[in-house]
Amino acid sequence: MQHSFTNKIMEILKNNFGKSADDIFQKSDLLKYINRKTASAHKGSKARSSFASIYAIYVLIEDYISKGFNKKNKYADYEGAIYTDLKGRMNELPFGEKLQNHALNHRMNKEFEKFYADSTYTPILRDVETKRYWINEHLLKIKHGSKTVNISPSIQLIIEAYIATKQQSFNMFIKTCEELRTITKKSPSKEKEFIFSLLEPNADARIFEIVSYAILKFHYAEQSIFWGFEMNKIEEEKLKLYKTGRTNANDGGIDFVMKPLGRFFQVTETTNVKKYFLDIDKIERYPITFVIKSELPENQLKKAIKEGAEAQFVIKSIAQKYMKAVEEIINLPKLKEIFEELIKEGKTNFILEEIIRQSRVEFNIE
Predict the structure, then answer these.
(1) What are phi and psi of 126, to 5 degrees?
(2) How far apart are CA 81 and CA 184, in angstroms?
(3) What span, in angstroms and rounded, lies between the C-alpha atoms of 193 and 158?
(4) Reported pTM
(5) How many Cβ atoms from other residues are within 10 Å of residue 316's Cβ?
(6) How many domains does the chain contain in total?
(7) Does residue 268 lie within any of the structural domains?
(8) Which tens digits make up the pLDDT trace of 105-140?
(9) Quick one: 237 and 337 in the same domain?
(10) Which domain range does residue 199 map to?
(11) Which of these, 210, 205, 307, 296, lies nearest to 256 by C-alpha position?
């Protein structure tokens, strides 16, 4: 797999191993995996970043090097890195503040196995009882001719270069938002093109959730209802959308909540209907609107959910209860349509302002 950041990977390997770089790369499944996971490096902040898996590798290798195991053959006797230390270090890294433990515990290993099924080794080793972790040293030692080289320092440099590249991309993203915010009246087509680029199937999940929120917040802001607890005390209240927490958080499946209607919104990028049913179950089948990062038509998405419900639950009455819980589906074309209307209403500046504000909070950028 060749992409723009591959050149940086090869540059680091050549600096460390000279003419042997190509051979070492070809013999290392771990380097090839990292190469695959860093494909978004130069695609801007909207592209999927894969920080969780990359950081899981990084913190274990950082621990490995800090204790000098890349220079001595005693790693087999090491008691292992402490889980809380690794998790804490992952959260300290840029963009890693809200990363959870899935990559360390199983997700990275499962994905590696999917790509390199013939590999003899599992990258991350752990003892569930003691909560101690190791990087599989076999993947760090590559035989080249009559020598065996340790690639851990190279991997550390590669991941640090990737982090720096993504930081630069994100800073450019914020800068672009701020620049567009100041020239809205002069070039409205640029803002539209920029926002549309964030509403694509390959967009980073966190950026997509932020942009979706900003668009829907101002879409509903001009709508209002009349309500009250007594007939002679009916009041008008505008709809207000609240973002309930950080993106990708384990918060029970509620991303946005609307006041005063009490509508729930869940943002998702998967078309796996089992995930929808899990979200519905978490809130005891309370009606929920799914904001889906898909270009498939709304009726096709709803049909897929219905077929999935009927296949999973067999009993039609149960499947129907799940379908009744799907209040609305908002897909990418619908979000773009809503944004087009907001452009006409002169709301672009407010949307960009909200994207900047939410992004700074989400990615912990001052």
Answers:
(1) -150, 155
(2) 51
(3) 32
(4) 0.67
(5) 10
(6) 2
(7) yes
(8) 888 899 999 999 889 999 999 998 999 999 999 999
(9) yes
(10) 183-362
(11) 210
Q: Which of 166, 201, 234 is the C-terminal boundary of a domain?
A: 166
Band (268; pLDDT cuts 50, 70, 90): confident
- Sheet hosting strand 240-243, strand order edge to edge: 240-243, 256-259, 263-268, 288-292, 326-330
Segment 272-320, tens digit of pLDDT: 777 777 778 777 788 889 899 989 999 998 888 888 888 878 788 888 8
Cβ neighbours for 102, distance < 8 A, ≥ 6 positions apart = 52
Q: Provide φ and ψ at 154, rounded to 5°.
A: -65, -45
Single out the residue of 238, 242, 218, 224 nearest to residue 346, CA to CA. 218
Is the same domain home to 157 and 189? no
**Same domain? 195 vs 136:** no
Q: Which residue, of 109, 139, 166, is where some domain finishes? A: 166
Q: Are 195 and 188 in contact (CB under 8 A)?
A: no
In this structure, are 354 and 253 located in the same domain? yes
- Number of alpha helices (DSSP H) and beta strands (DSSP E) in the chain: 15, 12
Q: What confidence tens digit (pLDDT) does each residue in 225-241 have?
A: 998 888 888 999 999 99
